[in-house]
Every structure is written in structure tokens, then in C-alpha cells.
Amino acid sequence: MDDPHYYTISIHLEKMRRAGIPIDQAAADSATKLTHWEAERREQAQREREQVPIVAQANWRTPKPHVGLAVGIVYYVLRQGHIKIGTTVKPLQRFADLMPDAVLAAEPGGEQLERQRHREFKEYRSPTARGEYFQPRPALIKHIRTLRDTLGVPTYPFRSMLSAEESAALVSDLLDPPDF
Hints:
Layout: H1 6-18, H2 25-51, H3 57-61, E1 73-79, E2 82-88, H4 91-98, E3 102-108, H5 111-120, E4 133-134, H6 138-151, H7 164-175
Antiparallel strand pairs: 1-2, 1-3, 2-4
């Protein structure tokens, strides 16, 4: 109980129990090791983020209203192989909460544009994830590329379990695959 990660270790153990894994000393050691490894990765990522300057953050922190659109953005983030299409007026806070693998694109707009994008890409909705998650299919990838070409690559800072290099590699693999 002296471990500062006691609560997280107990969650891992409960998940293991529910999965049918016998809880013995080896399981407890594995849960402890996993929890400490996750904590170290989070701390390492935080240290790396603190050392990297945030480029062009001011351009994206306060989205400018565009004629006929509400203040805010519709964002496209990558999370565990799916693309989440959402909306926010506070992107820094939202991305801190989401912890995406990568921020792919953003466009000025609000809930109406978000609903429009959900309808536009409804056939790509992920069957295994909740309603705002979509499978990365050619039409959606093309839309994201177009946004990046016309509005620029978003540079919002965000927390992730991935390193900056891993995140960049995922974006490159997704947006520039050899077979697209």
C-alpha cells in the first residue's frame, strides 16, 4: 500500500481477474511492473513535451470566427487506429482530456459542421468504437489531407502515451501510405 500507484495496480489486477487470470504473486508482480512502466512512459513523454517548443500554438489556440460559422473547431484526431471527429471551443483542454495518438486536422466550425461530417462519413463509422469514431478510409483520409493542405497542419500540444516520433510515424503511415 506504500506504492503511489497502488490504485492503478489494483485496477490492473481486477482486469486480470475478470479475464480469468489467477491472481497470485506473479500476477501482482506483473501488474506492478506494467503500472510502473506506464507511469514512466507518461513521465518521459511529459519531460519531452516540456523540452519541445510549441510552434504556431497561437494560431490555433483561439480559432477565428469565419463568416456563417460558430467560433470553434471540428477536429480530426487519431486514437487507437480510429479517427475521431469532434468539436470544441477549447482545443487545448479537449486534447489534454482525449490524449489522442495524433491531431490530424482541424477546421473552423461547431456542432452543425460536426454533424455534417458525421453524416458525410457515416459509412466509415467504426463498428467497435463509439459514434464519433471512424475507420480511416480513402475519402476521409483525402478530406483530412485537403484540410491540412488548405488550413495547415495543426500544432496543438497534446498528451499521448506515444512519443512524438511514434505519433509522427503514425500520421505519415496514415496520410502517405504507398498504396493510396
